[in-house]
Amino acid sequence: MRFFYTSLFCLLLPFVLLRLYWRGIKQAAYRARWQERLGFFTQSYPEHCIWFHAVSVGEAEAAFPLIKRLQQRYPDQPILVTTTTPTGAARVAEVLGDSVSHVYFPYDIPWVVCRFLSVFKPVMLVVMEKEIWPNLFRQCGQRQIPLFIINARLSARSAKSYRWIKGLVKPALENVQMILAQTEDDRLRFIDIGAASDKVQVSGNLKFDIELPQQLIEQGKALKGDLFSGRFVWIIASTHPGEEAVFLAQYADLKRHIPELLLVIVPRHPERFDSVHQLALQYGLQVERRSRQASISSATDVYLADTMGELKMLYAAADVAFVGGSLVPVGGHNILEALAAGTPVMFGPHMVNFKEIARQVLQDGAAVQCQNKEDVAGRLLILYQEPALRQALVEKGHRFIRKNQGALDKTLAMLENQGFTQPERLK
Q1: Which strand (E) or helix (H) includes residue 355?
Q2: For a designed S-S bond to 78, which of 46, 189, 197, 422 qualifies (C-beta 3.0 to 4.6 A apart)?
Q3: Which of 171, 60, 146 is nearest to 414 (CA)?
Q4: What is the reported pLDDT for 223?
Q5: Has residue 164 got a pLDDT over 70?
Q6: Phi, psi of 320, deg, nearest 5
Q7: Alpha carbon separation from 262 to 68, 88, 131, 167, 343 (Å, rounded)
Q8: Between 244-257 and 373-385, two packed helices, what is the crossing angle to 10 degrees?
Q9: Kind of pairing between the strands at 147-152 and 287-289
C-alpha cells in the first residue's frame, strides 16, 4: 500500500508545488525557501541533531518549553525544528532565534526524505501531536533513528479516516518507539489505528505547561492603561472566515449597552488582515491597525491586531477574550494562553480539536461556552455587568491550568529514558 501512496504523492507533486506558488501570491513566505521541502538547502546545518516537527504555530508553542528544557540540560546538542507553514516558521524564529536550526518539513517522498536525513543525520525525531508520514517513518526505522509522537491527539473523525488506510498507517506506526497521548481516549484511538498498546501512554497535554513571562503580562497591562485607557477591551482571537462578521454585526448594538467597548480582532492567518479591515469598514466602523502604531480615540471601534507573535500580550491587555475557530466548524483553538494571561475566556460550540480541554474547563467553571451568536452577545453583557464574575473566572482559570500541569516533566523523562539510549550519538 505504501507503493501506491508514494506513486500518488509523486503524481500530485507538481500540483502541490503549484498550490504552494499560488499561495505565495498572497503570502510571499510560501514561495520562500520552497526548495527545502524537496530536501535542497542553500547553507550547511549542524548534523546529529534532535529533530522536532511542529506543523504550525499551535504545535510549535507546545514544543517550546520542552525544547528550552532540553537546551538547558544539553547545551551543546544541536536542535532542528521543522514546520509546514510560514507562520510556524516565523514563530520559531521569534521564540528560539538562532539557538535552533529551522527548515521546512520535507515532502514524504523516499528520495526527498533520504536526502533530508542524510543532511541532518538526526539522532532522534520528535513529532508533535498526530503527524504520520509512512516513508519518513520507514526510513527512521531502517536507520535506527528513535522516533516519538508526543502530545499526541487523535479525534474520532481523524481515527475513522486513518482506519480506511490502516494498511498504510499500521506499518508506519511500527517504527515509532513511543506515543505519549494527551488523554485516554487519544491513547485508545492510536491503538485502534494500529499502534502497539505497549507503545502508547497517557502523559497529559504539554499546552498546560505554558510559560508566560511576567514581563509579557506587564506589557499587556501597560498597553491596557495607555493605548486602551478607559475602554472595555473585548479581544476576538484566532478568527476564521465567517466569524469576524458575527462580532462586527453585533458591535453597534453592544455599544449601546457598553459605551466604552473596543473590539480587538486577531485573524488567525496574516493573509486575511486586509480583508478583515475592509469588512469592518463595510459595517461602518472606525478601524485602527496595530502595525501602523496609531493612537486610538473614543471614536475607534475596532483595533486590528495585524502583527505576529503578540497574541499573549494582547490577551493580558483585554477585559474579556473570545477564542475563535469555535463559532464556525473549524474545531477551536487553544484557550490556555488566554487563561494563563489572566483573561476571562469565552468560546463557541465547535471545539472538537480541544474537546477534552473544553469539557474540563467548563466542568471547573473556568470559562464560558456560547452556543450561537445571540448567546455570545448575552454572555458578554453579563461579564461586563459583573466584574466579580470576571475575577472568579480568572482565578478558576489559573487553578485549572495549575492542576493539569506535569506533561512536560513526563515527556522529558520518557525522551531521556528511551530516546537517549545511545548517548555517544549526542553532543
Answers
A1: helix 355-363
A2: 46
A3: 146
A4: 97
A5: yes
A6: -145, 145
A7: 36, 29, 39, 53, 15
A8: 40
A9: unpaired
On whether the 214-403 domain is CATH 3.50.50.60, my answer is no
For 85, the grid coordinates are: 507553514
Reply yes or no on whether the pLDDT at 3 is more than 90: yes
DSSP code for 343: -
Give me the active site residues, please: 59
The H or E element that residue 392 is part of is helix 387-403
pLDDT digits (tens, 9 = 90+) for 241-271: 999 999 999 999 999 999 999 999 999 988 8
Domain borders along the chain are: 2-209+406-425, 214-403
> CB–CB of 248/285 below 8 Å?
yes
The closest of 301, 294, 316, 334 to 394, measured between CA atoms, is 316
**pTM of this structure:** 0.88
253: which strand partners?
none
State the cell numbers at 393: 473566572
Question: For residue 363, what are the contacts with CB-CB under 8 A and spacing of at least 6?
Answer: none
CATH code for residues 2-209+406-425: 3.40.50.11720
Q: Percent of the chain at pLDDT above 70?
A: 98
How many CA atoms lie less than 13 Å away from 183 in the CB half-sphere?
17
Find out whether 347 and 358 touch, Cβ atoms under 8 Å.
yes
β-partners of residue 234 are 263, 320
Dihedral of the CA atoms 247, 250, 252, 255 (nearest 10)?
Answer: -80
Name the residue with cell 500500500. 1
Q: What cell numbers appear for 244 in the block?
A: 469576524
| Confidence at 423, pLDDT banded by 50, 70, 90 | very low
Quote the cell numbers at residue 182. 494527551
Cell readout for 95 is: 521564540
Nearest to 243 by CA among 351, 357, 354, 323: 323
CA distances, 371 to each of 123, 150, 204, 347 (Å): 47, 32, 27, 9
* DSSP code of residue 107: P
Which backbone phi and psi does 346 adopt, to 5 degrees? -120, 150
